[in-house]
Fold this protein.
Amino acid sequence: MKFRLEPEVRPVVTSALALSGAVGVFALAFGVLAVGAGANVWQACALSFFTFTGASQMSAMTVIGTGGSVGGALGGALLLAGRNGVYGLALSPYFNESLGKRLLAAHFVIDETTAMMTAQTNPRLQKIAFWTTAIALFSLWNLGTLLGAVLGSAIDPHTFGLDVGFTAAYVAMLFPHLKTVNGRFAAAGGALISVVLAPFVPIGLPILAAGLAIFVGLRPTDSSVTRSATASDNETVQ
Amino acid sequence: MNMSWALVIWLSIGAYAFKMLGFVVVGSRKLPDVLSRCLMLIPAALLAALVFNSSFTSGQSYAIDERAIGLGVAIIAAWRKLPLIVVVILGAATTAFLRAL
């Protein structure tokens, strides 16, 4: 990390910090919502520190909060975590470091670092973008979670509508994915499956089953939607 | 509540495994286009499922209540491109207000 900011580096660092600040506020919401759904402060913090992928953390807490089992919560959350594997594929050509450093970097392969890194044009700026975003975002994500969890412990989740707070966060996270036709089909399919199955299968399973809607991607379509384009589409908080 | 440390631990192991799988194990080998296209649709499908399932079901039965109004407000707020935290607060506050009536 170089803290001597040259003109070409400055915008990269500035946007990484701005993005991390926004994510930190989101983490505050996650902390409040997580304790509202039944986690204690340490569990909420451990999720942010060790799982460190927002949508999965929230999905798991929603299923738990609505009375689902650990298995039911894991299913959908892991499926959501699966997309980081795809980001990893996109980013790995940029990393030629030692195995140890790659294993550490892997923990930070998420929507935001992918979007920030793939937005840069030269290898040096790509590396700066990745690590600046990773460090700033990880710090603020964990700090925000802790503050939110402590704050959330003091209020009654139902009275304050926190369950719908989760839902509202998903709505905001969903919108960028509706820009493509496939995205809209997948969302409609997922919503339909999750509601139709609800009376017949255990809580949490409809969310996992909604994953079947991704096969609308098998439709022949223009292949202009590349991985990096999709990643930067998600630049809003995930 | 079924919250447990087991969930925290398994989710953390699983999430890291996915990150590492693409980044370190598979490396720069390329996935077939159609496969990565499908995988990138996971958030769209699952986020929509979470939205509708948690708004219109209660346990294993259907329910339409204050949550639906809160959802409507959140959708309008997100559609007007308000910041995420504002969307969250509007959705929660609307529901809280209706519940307090």
